[in-house]
Each structure stands twice: as structure tokens, then as C-alpha cells.
Specification:
0% strand, 165 residues, elongated, 6 helices, mainly alpha, 65% helix
């Protein structure tokens, strides 16, 4: 109970805890990464390293805020958001083909950030999933009767009575 009185605990409890759907988490991550890339283009001249550093906490928030039913979507949506968001700062020449080549080149040179953010999201989702499975298992064992049989005797033979020999 002493933990609940600490200022850190109270601060963490005030942080919003939304539950986004799979589509919502992908849109959230994509929109935030696109806005950050636009901001970095204006402020830092389009630094892809700064974009990658900012991608890691956004990937973590996406994995934390996705609802339990859609946990598998976070590690899928996060790399898509990285690729969509990097468009404003990718160095491409004029024309559609030049922009696509600039995007592919930026993704190839900075794939470490992409893999790192996906790994962060995957680890958070895995821990959350294991925690959910553990809580469900504990809930099932708490609901079982103390005798452990599950009904009207008979030794648990699946409902069939075996005649005594």
C-alpha cells in the first residue's frame, strides 16, 4: 500500500489510458509519425535520425494503448506508420518515381529504427498478452469448486459410466 502514496504512482495514474481498436491504433501511429516528420522538416531540416528516435516512444504508446482484443495489430501497424510518416523527410528528386526512390532509400538506410520500433511494440504486446492469459487462468481456477471433480461424481470419465469389473 505504500506504493500508492508515492508521487510517481500518482503521476502514472493520471496518464490517459485509452483503448484503441486495431484500425484506430494504426491511424494514431500513422498520424503522429506524419505530423512529427512534418515538424522535423520545418525545425531540424528533416533529420531521419531524430524521426527514428521519436518513433520508438510512439511505437510503445501504440502497443500500450491498443485494446486487448486487437493486440496482434500493433506490431503490424507500427512499421506501416513508420513508412507512411517518413514521406515528408525522405530525400527524393522531382516526380513520382524520384519520390518513391527517395522513400525506398530512406527506409533501407534507416531500417534499424523501423526494426527497433517494431521490436518494442512486439515485446510490449507479448508481455500484455501473457499477462492477460495469466489473469484469465487465475480467474478460471478461482471459479472451480474446491472438490475439483466438476459435478456429480463418477470420476470425471467424460460423462460415460464404466461398469465395475
Amino acid at each position: 500500500m505504500a506504493l500508492r502514496r508515492t508521487p510517481l504512482y500518482r503521476t502514472l495514474r493520471r496518464i490517459p489510458n485509452p483503448r484503441l481498436t486495431g484500425l484506430g491504433s494504426g491511424l494514431f501511429c500513422t498520424a503522429v509519425m506524419f505530423l512529427l516528420a512534418c515538424l522535423l522538416r520545418l525545425v531540424a531540416g528533416g533529420s531521419v535520425v531524430a524521426y527514428g528516435v521519436l518513433f520508438l516512444p510512439v511505437a510503445a504508446l501504440t502497443a500500450l494503448w491498443v485494446r486487448p482484443a486487437d493486440l496482434v495489430t500493433a506490431p503490424v501497424g507500427v512499421p506501416i506508420a513508420f513508412a507512411a510518416g517518413v514521406l515528408p523527410i525522405s530525400e527524393g528528386s522531382d516526380g513520382f518515381g524520384g519520390q518513391v526512390m527517395g522513400l525506398v532509400t530512406t527506409l533501407a538506410f534507416h531500417a534499424g529504427w523501423l526494426y527497433g520500433g517494431t521490436l518494442v511494440a512486439g515485446l510490449i504486446v507479448t508481455v500484455r498478452r501473457i499477462r492477460l492469459m495469466t489473469l484469465r487462468r487465475q480467474g478460471r481456477t478461482a471459479q472451480r469448486p474446491a472438490g475439483g471433480g466438476g459435478g456429480s461424481g463418477g470420476g470425471g470419465g467424460g460423462g460415460k459410466r464404466v461398469p465395475a469389473a
